[in-house]
Specification:
This protein is α/β, with parallel strands linked by helices and 327 residues long. It has a single domain (51-318), classed as Metallo-beta-lactamase, Chain A, CATH 3.60.15.10. The chain is built from twelve helices and twelve strands. Strands 4-1-2-3-5-6-7 form a seven-stranded mixed beta sheet. The longest helix has 22 residues, at 3-24. Bound molecules: zinc ion. Zinc ion is lined by residues 153, 155-156, 254, 306. Its cofactor is Zn(2+). It holds the Pfam family Lactamase_B. Keywords: Hydrolase, Metal-binding, Zinc. This is MBL fold metallo-hydrolase.
Length: 327
């Protein structure tokens, strides 16, 4: 055969492999979720007296993606909204945020980023910066006792410049990991966003909790329990909120983008997944753990920090929930 024919044949073969792997990337990727392999866990008995806790999602920005990108194996092109939010939690012993949404100056922080970054992860529609949310709630940054960071990706620390001096708390494992490169990535974006706020590192010395291997009880009263959700980043932390009135809530950082990710379970599209995931196998195991927990506890609101639909639905019921009677 002539060289030209060989080249044509090679081109066709390579093209076919490319098309096949592109199609494959949208097909379902089955997980082993057999109950036989479920981690043994005893259901937690909640404290007899729990405090009344207020929860509010403060949405700062959003972007829409077709569902087939958010959930591998979905062939739907329906637009799903990915939110950039902070969560305001008012506990009798302290008022704090879980993650921080976006600060007013975030466009300035992102100005020097690469074209690829600006057109992928850095592309969003600004809605209301964190400082404006606080103003609308008649709050000053100083009214916050601390901020809990689920993990150190830029989009979870991007509200900190609106919170000068507010102490930050995060998993020691996450901070140690970040010092090995994440802080300096993208022209030091995360380091710059962390500003000069004081940092307190948390160790998860508490017992296994709801199938998660260790825990940290923030106020020592069984109401705010942190658990590790590794994989997306090594030290990502999830937060249970157990309270006197209203449903139990489990905030899961970026362990799942939207609820389908743990209900099916399914990762997002593999290209996106590999862009944002630090350890593929561990992140998949965390999704499986969330899947089992969600099926054991359908009464718990399990909400990812980008899941606009769940956050809106939660806020609708939260506004109507009964509260402690003030006498
Ligand atoms: Zn994120």
């Amino acid at each position: 055969m002539k060289l030209r024919n060989w080249l044509t044949l090679g081109g066709i073969a390579l093209g076919s492999v490319g098309v096949a792997s592109a199609i494959n990337s949208f097909l379902p990727h089955p997980f082993v979720t057999d109950p036989l392999y479920e981690r043994q866990s005893e259901s937690v008995s909640l404290a007899a007296t729990l405090p009344d806790i207020d929860i509010a999602f403060l949405r700062c920005g959003s972007v829409t993606v077709p569902e087939c990108l958010a959930v591998r194996g979905s062939f739907s092109l329906t637009a799903r909204t990915i939110a950039y939010s902070a969560v305001l939690v008012k506990h009798p012993q302290g008022t704090f945020l879980y993650d921080t949404g976006l600060c007013a100056d975030i466009p300035l922080f992102l100005m020097d980023q690469s074209l690829i970054f600006s057109n992928t992860l850095g592309r969003f529609h600004m809605e209301r910066p964190l400082c404006q949310h606080l103003e609308n709630l008649h709050m000053e940054p100083g009214d916050l006792d601390f901020v809990l960071l689920s993990h150190l990706h830029w989009d979870h620390v991007a509200g900190i410049p609106d919170l000068p001096g507010v102490p930050l708390q995060l998993n020691r494992v996450e901070y140690d990991f970040a010092t090995q490169g994440l802080l300096e990535k993208n022209q030091g974006l995360v380091r710059r966003l962390l500003s000069n706020n004081p940092v307190k590192l948390l160790d998860f010395a508490g017992p296994a909790y709801e199938g998660f291997r260790c825990s940290h009880d923030v106020f020592g009263d069984g109401s705010i329990i942190l658990v590790p959700l590794p994989g997306h980043t090594p030290g990502q932390l999830g937060m249970f909120i157990n309270r006197a009135y209203g449903p139990r809530v489990f905030l899961v950082g970026d362990a799942a983008w939207i609820s389908d990710n743990y209900m099916v379970p399914a990762t997002m599209h593999p290209i996106l997944w590999s862009m944002v995931t630090s350890d593929d196998a561990t992140a998949q195991q965390t999704l499986i753990d969330l899947h089992h927990f969600a099926h054991r506890h359908p009464e718990v609101a399990i909400i990812g920090m980008h899941d606009a639909q769940m956050q809106e639905a939660f806020m609708t019921t939260e506004r109507k929930r009964p509260r402690a009677q003030i006498v």
